[in-house]
S-(Hydroxymethyl)mycothiol dehydrogenase
Amino acid sequence: MPQTVRAVVVKAKDAPVVVENIIIPDPGPGEVVVDVLTCGVCHTDLHYKLGGIGNDYPYLLGHESTAVVSQIGENVTNVKVGDRVILNWRAVCGECRACQKGQPQYCFNTANATQKMTLEDGTELSPALGIGSFAEKTLVAAGQCTKIDDDVDAAAVGLLGCGVMAGIGAAINTGEVKRGESVAVIGCGGVGVAAIMGAKLAGATTIIAVDIDQNKLDQAVKLGATHGVNSKEQDPIKAIQDLTNGFGADVVIDAVGRPETYKQAFYARDLAGRVVLVGVPTPEMTLELPLLDVFGRGGSLKSSWYGDCLPSRDFKMLVDQYRLGRLDLDAFVTERISLDQIEDAFQKMHDGTVLRSVVEIA
């Protein structure tokens, strides 16, 4: 029987978010309903609010979550009622050309729930990243649920559902950081700090944090960076080169996603080094580089989609690293808030005063 729950909705471009009653249908074939425990306030949700992703309002926001399966539809075999799960937006299909090539982390046909959640008046909602978990319950495809043990903090591990996984994966999966390599990360918000932690986990020995905010740099050094560079006060390209014997870093990760920061990343890497773009640009941004420089520097220029993550592979491994004390996911949880405080959390995120505000729902 359909259920009515409280959820956070944005009804028009740049409108304030509101807490409304929404209708959750019973799960159909391949679908599950989950009771949401926690949901991180991610910059992607702010992009939805501001119209930076699409115009399919109203949006049901939230996607970075831990939850408990409360109902399952037909043909669901990967989870059962009562399982604790991390929600993900890469439910791989197993059939597209990426999956068939053995690269499911790039799946081009990821699954979402087929049915629609609605407002009480029947208006269909567009769930953020096919999840929509700023809600007491949500409806997702079964493949969007990755089972985890319940002996870890839901607020911390739920952040693997998006931003933290994007950063860690940018270093480990996309950048393929190796033991003893040097890594520079430009932009030390949540994703950038996660990339720093990923570089540390992979065994990098020189990890350079770059930002214009000294408080963020101080925090990045506490969480794994070996050096901090304030790019408001010094040229980040030269600073990175100076810290790597004049060569540049083996891997440079742009966690900002602007043409200016991408050019810094491009020129701050060593010859044959790797550049990874994990910061999300806006639609109007363009990049211009001398093609001879692209050719002459060799190496690789990569984009990192969700940290090139495969949830079934990566989530459990990273939860284990957290449990072992090698990955400080607790450090990302700056504050714990309610559904009614999300608008304020967006402002704190914009101001850079938090790594993550996490909504605790159940």
Remarks:
- Residues 167-305 form a domain with the Rossmann fold fold (CATH 3.40.50.720).
- The chain is about 25% helix and 25% strand.
